[in-house]
Amino acid sequence: MTWSIIARDSASGSMGIACASRALAVGSIVPHGAGRVGAIATQAFANPFYGIDGLNLLREGCSVAETIANLTEMDAGRDYRQLHIIDRNGETGCFTGSACLAWSGSVSGADASVAGNMLAGPEVVEATLAAYQEASALDFDERLLAALDAGERAGGDKRGRQSCAIRIWSEGPIASFDLRVDDHAEPLRELRRLWRLAHQGYAPFQAFLPSRRNPAGMTDREIAYRACEEYAARWNARHPV
Q: DSSP characters for 35-102?
């Protein structure tokens, strides 16, 4: 009842997931990730421990194939689950349980994977991946949104639409970009509105938060606010309404 794209931005190394569903709050359970580690989407009868334990396995040096095998082997409910993963090197893998409802499946390309279940057909994942690959000139977050839009135009979740989300991890376990639409008649349109709003202050401000490299972050309000205003002006010039 969900489809998602997981990807690695080759320019920055950031990991991202965008997902949509005819279910409430898809962003609360499907996307998991960590900067310089990987990204994992757990869907169908989602198992959140696939995200938690899967990231730990990747940190320990397991390959994507080994991670999927370890997660599914220990799960008696695996036939009802769908899982796909990308690691920090761009390697991808997917598992679709035999009891997932049609249409269910996945496609993959360079630094990206798309998977879904209860979709209108295979054209949904194919269109999502194609749009992502064709939008290489866009910023990473906008590429992910463009991919979801294409999947929706191809039919999306065959039951309809309700929620969507986008999460990006640049450094460490905390998402550097994290937007959700939990319940909306036109969730992707609402996500676009939030995306524009995010680039007016939220997105640039992430650079000033504490990090492992800079535990104190930036505490000078004047510098931070001025930098955010300058960023927004540049971004708006590149993205006119």
A: TTTEEEEEEES--HHHHHHHHHHHHTT--HHHHHHHHHHT-TTGGGEEEEEEETT--EEEEE-TTSPS
